Amino acid sequence: MPRIHLLPTSVVNRIAAGEVVERPASVVKELLENALDAGPSRIDVALEQGGVALVRVVDDGGGIEPDDLPLAVAPHATSKLRAAEDLERINTLGFRGEALASIGEVARLLIRSRVPGGDGAMLEVDGGRLGAVAPHGGAQGTTVEVHQLFGNVPARRSFLRSPQTEWSHASEAFVRTALAHPGVAFSLMHNGRRVHDLPATDSWRRRIGDLFGAAMAERLIEVEAADGDVSVRGFVGRPEDDVAGTRLQHLFIRGRPFRDRSILHAVQEAYRGLLLSGRQPIVFLRCQLPAEDVDVNVHPAKMEVRFRDPSRLYRLVLAALRTRFLAPDATATRLVPPRAVEPWSGAPDEAAPPPPSLFREASAGGGPGGIGGGAVTSAPAWRPAVAAAAVQPRGAWEVAAPDLPPSRDDEFAVQMHDRYIVVESADGIEVIDQHALHERILYERFKAAVAAGGLEVQRLLVPERLDLGPGEMELIDDHAATLERAGLTVEPFGGSTVVVTSKPALVGRTPAVEIVREVLDRLTAATAAGGDPALLVDEMLHGLACRAAIKAGDSLSQSEVDALVRDRRAVRESHHCPHGRPTSLTLSRQDLDRQFRRT
Hints:
599 residues; alpha+beta; Heat Shock Protein 90; Ribosomal Protein S5, domain 2; Ribosomal Protein S8, Chain: A, domain 1; five-stranded mixed beta sheet; 22% strand
């Protein structure tokens, strides 16, 4: 057996880099934490090629003494801990003394710094090789530049994804940190373009609005709960404002973003029965508890934490959300408002429209089922009058085309509880989830339309305005062509506002802004997963179908119920929705006879 020996410092640093520096987003997070610990009023971040070519973080904090610069890039050197007991009461973000040493081992690292009233200095580290400290005449604070991450480690660099994907992760790291510290001004640039410019504020709602849009932030519900020295405060979304992924779920503990399955389970439990399966709530929560009751030193990346009494915080989060949703003034958080359909409002001598089919948008120039070769259509030929307060996805429908199988005479269907459809058949009864089935049918039709050359598009007579966060603006710019393929035309309107000028005809009366919001959520998740063009298009079609489908709580006429049951026969995979949930459950006559003990 070989003799035991000490590893060289460079090997130790590379091992640490494997734990601390996974991708450019890791560098952004570590440098931001170091900058915040310096007590700045402003932090500016600049990235190139998603952070692979360059990450620059500039702060106006306390700076680093020239004599301390070599120690700043030495392993396990820190100004934030003095004794082992300090690990029990950590009040800073970066404290392990690994980040700069690890980054300098796998990239070219340049540090410029000046303390108040002192001389400035600079230091360069290239692949672990330490340069000499040199004078530098700069402003107070610290600038850290990381060039060509993993440039000297080709094997590690080959594991990086596309610049677009790395940018998605890096911008998320920036957003999480900026959310946790609204009292500090932040800016973010990517490839020379300003993405975020966030002023310092004492209003967390405003910081949320600056990042994700003022309209969304204003709809959030404020929640809070306290139990002695433990408290939970923040904002949560209304159930009807649910989203496709977890991008809008942010938890913070003592100014530090973190993920914890127990706390997220408490959030899901609070929303139980209010959301459709697969949908996620919007959550921004800040948890406060004594430093000695939380261990943030579980992992070098510091995203995981451990609580001394996890059940206490779990109960507090659950109580904060449930109390708010069950309050008398929280009636606006119903999942789907009731629909009030007025009688036909046409002229007295005008014949009422034919019975509607849920899936046939009346338009000019389209093929069967509203699926055409990308033709642009005008407004629907007729439209039933619907109460303005009701959010309904369906518009005008024409009678189903003859290519669908006719309804069977022995089949009887009835809607139950405004969410299920019970169908009598020769073999027994079938219970259908109306949203899941309609979503599957729309998804298949969207896919067929795209494969045939493009979705049939409806131009909006009055374009719909939408306020976006700066990061979302860049997402729309990057995926403009993909959005066009999905039938959505989004144009800049000035500042962070865009206008939607067209949408797919098959989505009916679903507001175009709702469609764009849903698609943006799914694009964000798909981009983070790799940004494959086929995946992006498919995720957008999922979003279109989910948002345009009828919802649990929508009351259907008998003709609409019959159309839904009939049109499912045109879909091969109608037994499950695009998310994998079953669309129906079947009870045979034998099952019923057995339950009633007839056998």
